[in-house]
UniProtKB/TrEMBL annotation:
Involved in the transposition of the insertion sequence. Pfam families: HTH_21, HTH_28, rve, rve_2. One of its GO terms (biological process) is DNA integration. SUPFAM superfamilies: Homeodomain-like, Ribonuclease H-like. InterPro entries: Homeodomain-like_sf, HTH-like_dom, InsJ-like_HTH, Integrase_cat-core, RNaseH-like_sf, RNaseH_sf, Transpos_IS3, Transposase_IS3/IS150/IS904. This is IS3-like element ISLla3 family transposase. It comes from the Bacteria. The lineage of its organism: Bacteria, Bacillati, Bacillota, Bacilli, Lactobacillales. One of its GO terms (molecular function) is nucleic acid binding. Residues 293-460 form the Integrase catalytic domain. Gene3D superfamilies: Ribonuclease H-like superfamily/Ribonuclease H (3.30.420.10).
Amino acid sequence: MVKYSIELKQRVIQDYLSGKGGSTYLAKLHNVGSSSQVRRWIRNYRAEGLPTAHSPTAHSKVNKNYSMELKENAVQCYLTTDLTYEAVARKFEITNFTLLASWVNHFKIYGEVPISKKRGRRKKLESIASSMTQNPNDSQRIKELEQELRYAQIEVAYFKRTSEIGEKCSNEQKSRLIYSLRKTFKLKEILKVTGFPKATYYYWVNCFERVNKDELIEKEMLKIRQEHANAGYRPMSELLKQRGYHVNHKKVQRLMKKLGLRVTSYWHKSRKYNSYKGKVGTVAKNKLHRRFRTSIPHQKITTDTTEFKYYEDGIQKKCYLNPYIDLFNSEVISYHISKQPSYQSIDIALNQALAVTSDCPYRRTFHSDQGWGYQMRDYVSKLKSHRIFQSMSRKGNCHDNSVMENFFGLLKQEIYYGHIFSSFEELEQVIVIWIRYYNTKRIKQKLNWMSPIQFRLNYQNN
């Protein structure tokens, strides 16, 4: 290795500071082996000033002996911080940073820093005795066992962390994990044990260093998720637009996957409640004929009953929801929750719906299935007294009242399936809160990305 005088180093640094040229030009001008050597002198100058005979990084003709404590402190400093070899070497006054690198490599392989070798030539008898006691086959076997041990340690460290992440561990997550293990193991050995492609690893490492240009959008998406727990990528795109972020829906879908915001609640199918008990009263004709759209508020109203389960003291019980929905904007205009499927519950919700829809300038139509409650004399006569058309779905045809089926599906998928409720009051409160959210905040594409109440108010103002 070529050694350079302190005077030469000082001249090179002064030429660099005076602007004579860069590291490549100065290396050729002063016959220095490489431009990297010049850059190293400049870095040392910025950290310590001009080199002198007493500079920590100046190469001494006499080899310096370092204590075990200093070696251990230097190695731990490098492994536990983001400092480079050169920075750590300057901190601990180590003459050559490559010496520190050899200590770190030795520590990664054997778990300890190397012991300083004795100075001077080994005695002849000592070398002979060493060669007699050491068997080449034994030393080779020891190396193999040490390598197997390192591989086993890598397997434990890597696969334990991947199991914590989950089965669907992405290449980005694997690359971050391997990157964190580099402080303890060699990258070559980690990639060999895990079978992870080297090119893929370096691709993601380069991505880690890039500036995240979508940081503001991602923060806003996390805020939206707190308010809209089940918004998919299309509603998320519209909610971002309302907040001033115009982002393509495909990019929103990609960012939601990255942030783990994909909706997972829409998966459960369950037996639906059936209130049909045959013909117990008057069965009305189907006047709606699946014409679920109307341009007039409160003209077409649909209703149905659905069932929920809850537990009290370990005993399964049921409650029932009777909502009335305006087909103009899919708004829940009235509802009632009860512990039994009674006509009284239907009647309470009906009276509220009659009061809300009384401002309609045309004759109203109330549609339902052929449930026993909607065939009762009191229900039929009350509709007639208010000059309301009664309409019923055909027997066994849920599509004739698909608006209600869709509403019940949304409600149960978002707040009911996968949850256990320990009291009627707890379940009732959750349903009430969700219906309020549905009416005031849950946007729909068919309502021009407005909530039901926003759509109605917008119609009234125009």
